[in-house]
Amino acid sequence: MAEGLSALTAWHAAWAVATALSAIAGATLGGLSASSIFGVAAMVLPGAAGLVLLRRDGTGERSLLLVGWTLAALAAAMLSGGLAGPLVGAVVMPFVAALALGGPRHGVRLAQAGAVGSGIAALGGQVSALLIGPPPSQPIPASVSVVLATGAALLAVRLAWRLRENRLVAAEAMAHRVETILAATPGLTLVMEPSGRVLAAYGAPPPALEPDALFQSGLIAAVHAPDRPAILAAIDRALAGHEGQVQFAPRVALDRRVNLIVRRMDDGDGTPRVIAQAFDATRQFATEIGLEAARAEAEARDSGKTRFLANMSHELRTPLNAVLGFSDIMRQRIFGPLPQKYADYADSIHQAGGHLLDLINDVLDVSKIEAERYELSREVFDAREGVSAAVALVRVAASDKGVFLNSLVPDQPLSVDADKRALKQITLNLLSNAIKFTPAGGSVTLTLEVIGPYLELVVSDTGVGIAARDLKRLGRPFEQAGAVEQKVQGTGLGLSLVRALAELHGGRMSLDSTLGEGTAVTVRMPVAVAARPVLPEGGAEVIPFNAGG
């Protein structure tokens, strides 16, 4: 661009110098009249004005400069006698200047304006000749004028051609660069019609998707038949202005997969086109198939494990109940006294058996929930009943350990639609955990209330607390926190069962704990039943309506 501007200003400067020298020669040698010398001087002005383009260039500046050329040519023609005068070459200069000034976007318009300017100059010269009279014949000045105009025209044409040639070379270089970049892309880029006919292809094609076959038959024919509706849907989505993505199998290689991304591309002529990129997705497809198979296998194994635990729990409970029954008979000495050592053994057997039975019951409930075989037995009841029953079961254990147990339960009934046994189990597990991990002299507090549609049960303690890194793990089966001496006190199923039972009711369990200060477990379930207002005795009161106000 800078090179073309320099050549244009040089052309103007050369014209100004040549015309000025002609004026000086004509005045010195006496071959021109005074009016003709003024006409030559007028032609110097647009040449000198062209130097302004070095400081400011634009379409408006060039158009204004062309107006200057037209006015100078009109003045020269009128002062020299028109087409028969010595400055006949000045008449064509507006058109010649337009050729030099014209750019790639406005060249035609400037050329047309230059032709009009030359016509105006010629017409003005002829009008002047008619009014003043024909000028005397001056072949030498006329010849010099024509030679100068011809030279200026040759240089202007060369300048314009050179400018267009440079732009053409730059455009071809840019097109070649773009094609090189497209050819080096890792995927295959396709330009297509909405029907799937391929117009252009660039880049590295995926295996089993050859460009020659695509040019011959189109994309749709190269796709496995069941995948073709998805391809057409992706193209329709792209034509609607959205991005379409689809994965398909090539017709000649059904074991492979290709990812296709389609977008709309509007041509300058308004014809709708789509541009698509195709990538080999065989490795990704194989990985997904492998992951899906591994997931299915893991689910099958997990389901088998859950069924095994459920069955084994049932099988273990039968003999364990017999052990507990016989050990309880021995503890109560129903069939007579026992030596103290044997009585201690009976107590240990009963205590260990009870712990094992609790563990088996928890395993059975957890396995039922994981196997989706646990069915809630929902009924409407007062939530205080189940919670109070659980509190009564653990109160003796809390008292024996020296832990203060507080129960904050409202005086009014709390009607809920839930599984009564599950609510009692949730409360019992939370209280047992809290008492188990609270040292003597500590306290455990239970709070029960209804907030909107939710029943909220909070069990807080002043026990050992839970480290922040362990909070996320708790609530999963067999996950425990704390030191080894704390882990031996439980199985890791209590909180897991609480979480599962709460989620079966559509609720959730949350933990808030600080190590060394205590823990608060909150269970919220949307099971509250709205209390109906009690009607007054004898029915509702009827208030008569007075239409007159």
Structure description:
A hairpin with a 2-residue loop joins strand 9 (443-451) and strand 10. Helix 2 packs antiparallel against helix 3, helix 3 runs parallel beside helix 5 and helix 4 packs antiparallel against helix 5. This protein has helices at residues 2-29, 34-49, 59-80, 93-101, 107-132, 139-183, 211-217, 228-239, 282-332, 340-370, 383-401, 420-436, 468-471, 484-487, 494-504, and strands at residues 188-192, 198-203, 244-248, 258-266, 272-280, 378-382, 404-408, 415-419, 443-451, 454-461, 508-514, 518-525. Helices cover 55% and strands 15% of the residues. The protein is elongated. By secondary structure, the protein is an alpha+beta fold. The two termini are 91 Å apart. It is built from 15 helices and twelve strands. The strands form three sheets. The protein has a five-stranded antiparallel β-sheet. A five-stranded mixed β-sheet has the order 7-9-10-12-11, covered by helices on one side.
